[in-house]
What does this fold into?
Amino acid sequence: MPSPEIEQIKAKIDVAELLGEYLKLVPAGAGAYKALCPFHNEKTPSLMVSPARGSWHCFGCGAGGDVFEFLMKMENIDFPEALRILAQKAGVTLSRHRPEVASRKNNLYDVCELATRYWQKVLQESPRAQVARDYLAGRGVSEEAQEDFKIGYAIDDWSNLFDFLRKKGFAEQEIFSAGFTVRKDRGSGYYDRFRNRVMFPIIDHNGRVCGFTGRTLSKDEPAKYVNTPQTDIYNKSAIVFALYQAKNEIRKQDYAVVVEGQMDAVSCHQYGFKNTVASSGTALTKEQLQLLKRYTNNIYFALDADSAGQKATGRGEELIRDMEKEDRVINSFDRFGRLSQFIDPALNYNSKVITIPYGKDPDECLKSNPADWAEAIKEAQSAMEYFWQSVIKNKDLNDLAVKKHIASFLGEKIAKIDDPVENGYWTHEIGSRLNIREDDFRDRVSQIKAAQKAPSKAIVRPQDAARQTAPQNTTNDRDLLIFMRVLALIWMFPDFLAKLGDYLDPEVWIDPVAEDLYKKIILFYTVNNELFSISAAQREEQTIFDLFYDWVKTQAVSESALKTLEQSYLLAQKDFASLDAKEAKNELDTLIRLLKSNYLNVMISRLKLKLDEAEKTGDAASAENVYLELSELIKRKSAV
It folds into this structure.
């Protein structure tokens, strides 16, 4: 028999309101609604919702149930997670002794929520937080905005949060698994990851704190921002900052404004532009765009005016185009093997670009004059119009070489537009603006489209770009061999894993198998940290390799990945069994330097090609930007 708590949740949550957060519901008479089912491919609505009965049912695929069944199936989560989410929505307090409340993930959410409240209290009341209060006041962040975004402060202390959470009953492993601590290099124990930082909680679209971004207040701190690492509840590629606060306004206004920084998002909300989310300094991922698609098909990019922000705008637009093509596959699975969010193939993305009037970011514009920001949103251009204005700036359109370059650049953009009306419009329009015969330009676009039948060229991350330019049988093979040697050392010396995540970012792996396995082994270490603090004998004769191999087989990895693991184990026995810890550390340091050098060489070679191309076409602005990037990479290379 259902518990009183579950019945209370069902009574407080309207099934139509919950499904309406995901689906477009249409009245179907007698208080019922209908919608296209998200769990199978259909063109005519067969899913019916009955608010009176608190239930839903699809007559096409047979799926149905109450609010719990829908959320579990839609979000691909288990009952304990659904219970926690819906209890929060309903304002129902769950008994902590319930087994479903005490699941591993729910404990991580609990520790994140408690840390949030603690850091908020520190910010508001502690004398040691005056520096943070001064910083926020200087940035013009109101107390209301601080409350809305649950902003806090981590004081400059090595174990302040850790000690607090331990006193509240959380285990060391739970605190570590949530990403709050780092293992000490020597001896046992942990220290706080976040110190002397203004803390921005990262809240998922269901309202649960799952991670944090910490902005340093130390002038000599090289890492301006530090983020929670990948955990069981935090996957940064699937979270959109401020979406929880913005989603109702996004649905109401039917468009989302995407800014780059978290402070930009906070400022926009503070000044009344509450349909704003942040990309957190990177191009949006496919998962993030699919999440936004639940609330609107209209996305306005408003990234920083510097070159990195403008490039991210272009990458975001290209990713949208690529996703429009993929939307035709309704029941697709993401990289975790979960059923992807349904997207109606009849609805296309509509992306626009906001040109910031002055200043380098929305925050500066708002503080100068909020009316200018409102006007900038109103005057947002279509992505193609934005690309046109950007590429012709300071160019002589009568110069044949310039004209050819612009035709190729915009032809690539037009070739990605699947909608025939929009494609035809821009083919005619750009051809006319360039004074090129429409048939000739249409032929050029067709040639480009044919070339794009190869794997997508939407480059979101540097390592993706490197893979596309790296010879598959040289650079990638070398990368994979280095990775196998790193793994081999880990199997012999598991303690190396404690710091490996700090030494190497996932971006350095050019080979996709290496990148995927590297992310998984870091996650495995985070989830099973206790295994690395006990002796081999205490593991009941099971090696770290055996434990990881058994675990990774449950993570839907490829056969080639398993083969790589098996080869790395044999390599460990062959090359590293006789090494002592000091010799092994020297070997690991050498491999890390070699890996970073290998990655930078690939990126430098790619930029040199881009520089040559820009110089040949006479694109001085692009050449200058590429040269600056190239100089920075060469500087990094010399420091390796």
Remarks:
- The chain has 27 helices and 16 strands.
